[in-house]
Description:
The structure holds 2 protein chains of 2 kinds.
Chain A: H1 2-8, H2 10-17, H3 19-50, H4 57-73, H5 78-99, H6 109-131, E1 146-149, E2 152-155, H7 156-178, H8 180-190, H9 192-197, H10 202-228, H11 234-248, H12 253-274, H13 283-297
Antiparallel strand pairs in A: 1-2
Helix pairs in contact in A: 3-7, 3-8, 3-10, 3-11, 3-12, 4-5, 4-6, 4-10, 4-11, 5-10, 7-8, 11-12, 11-13, 12-13
Chain B: H1 3-11, E1 14-25, E2 28-39, E3 43-47, H2 54-61, E4 69-74, E5 77-79, H3 84-89, E6 92-94, H4 107-113, H5 123-128, H6 132-150, H7 166-179, E7 184-188, H8 196-213, E8 216-220, H9 224-230, E9 233-238, E10 241-246, H10 248-252, H11 255-262
Parallel strand pairs in B: 3-8, 3-9, 6-7, 7-8
Antiparallel strand pairs in B: 1-2, 1-4, 4-5, 9-10
Amino acid sequence: MEMLYAIFAAPFIDMFSDPVFFAEVVINGLLTGIMYSLVALGFVLIFKASGVFNFAQGAMVLFAPLTLVGLMEQGVPVILALIITAAVMVLLAFLIEKFMLRHLINQEGIVLFMATIGLNFLLEGAGQIAWGSNVKKLDVGIPDQSFEWGGILLNTFDIAAAVIAAILVAVLAVFFNKTRIGRALRAVADDHQAALSVGIPLRTIWIIVWSVSGIVALVAGIMWGTKSGVQFSLTLIALKALPVLILGGFTSIPGAIVGGLIIGMGEKIAEIYWGPLFGGAIENWFAYMLALVVLLFRPQGLFGERIIERV
Amino acid sequence: MSAKAKKINGRAETILSIEDISLSFGGVQAIRNVSFNIKKREILAIIGPNGAGKTSMLNVINGFYHPQKGTITYKGEKCHDMRPHLAATQGIARTFQNVALFKGMSTLDNIMSGRALKMKQNVFWQMIYYGPAQKEELEHREFVERIIDFLEIQHIRRIPVGKLAYGLQKRVELGRALAAEPDLLLLDEPMAGMNSEEKEDMSRFVLDVNEELGTTIALIEHDMGVVMDLSDRIIVLNYGQKIADGTPDQVRNNAEVIDAYLGVKYD
């Protein structure tokens, strides 16, 4: 009885007895969530365009800010460094298309997936050979101060990150849902040969998608890198994007956003209100639990396309 | 020889000509020194036993395969090989032996994707769905609706194609190919796996497309009844070589064809 009370009643009573604190937990959760969304978005773009889970996305989230920091350490001004890094990500997309994807047209998804694992090691290695493996401090000039708003403690950097993410997401969502490129993308993901036969330029589409995905990785990498330093552990953030993807659906841009928000908010709330019951630190596994439950009841995610296969 | 065939042969205007094409994969010779023409507005059937190189031939024509030897002349332009994207741009559309549709998308979206090359509006305008972009989308939608009416698939417009019966999928695939308003339509076994009623429907669509839109059609098919009825001309391949080229009448009486493929004289 006491146990049931502690699980089903006490946390809710706590929430209602201190609504301002609850609001703070929710808002901070959402702000973290949008950063998860940003990482998940990179996965969704490539998955939409090639039906492939890009294992190297985490490495890209490391590689991009590593390049940025490296350039800034050489004394390149921030703006110029950003532009050059974005250009490097586009160049990377060209190279990936030329040396990897082009040779794997019409192959099974698993073959492409294996190729991205290779790419993952390559990028991790190359980034660190070029710029070293020390933890680097990244500061692109976004103010990082805490302030209070209606009794809620907030951070300017988190707000800025959320705004940037929101803008990025809005532009991408419209781009992929309203334009012919969006339809072409879904076509390419479904069947390479058929896409080619209706005249969709497969290679161009791939370059576009990998470039956009690289730039999304750059933005995500800057945000996370500023928070926790540019270091190898950035690649692990990709793991956090997995439950977000499962929740939101691998093919849905809005899904990645909502998924990220739910995970971010859910894990903060769970940690604060239910955490003590389990001895804390449930933040680390809560997202995966949630993903498992989603998999049981809605394997395509909340927003994903339902794939129907006739056997 | 039908009246139409006479007319075609009389005019003899060639849309595509294949000259001395050879294609091999490693040690396997798929096509050996094959030459033939496809004339404007005709229905040409390519037949032959399994592994004769029929599908490879279509793949060469639309640029999936690049032959080691030979030339392809399409609409008067000579080249060594085609590229899929270019082929599509220049009016070659096709369907596949194992239906290759975009399974997660609806019938409507599948056929719309066939108009990928016709959409010219700036991506920026499309994003805000404004002005010319909106008008363009509506125009294409109208065209696609006409195809849907023509193929009698109104009732499955919104259904994801992965869910449809095989015969209907083949029809949607034809619709997608037609959406590109092709000059040359390549059909790889359009009637495989269909029952006789579905075959009749499909034959009717193929004939209508040919007659009403004036589309040149090259098709691969194993049902000899269908082939003899539909085609103006037949090419027979065997072990990668062309063994006959002529009207249905000539082909069905050709001793070599009977030997290699038909087995018995086909009436």
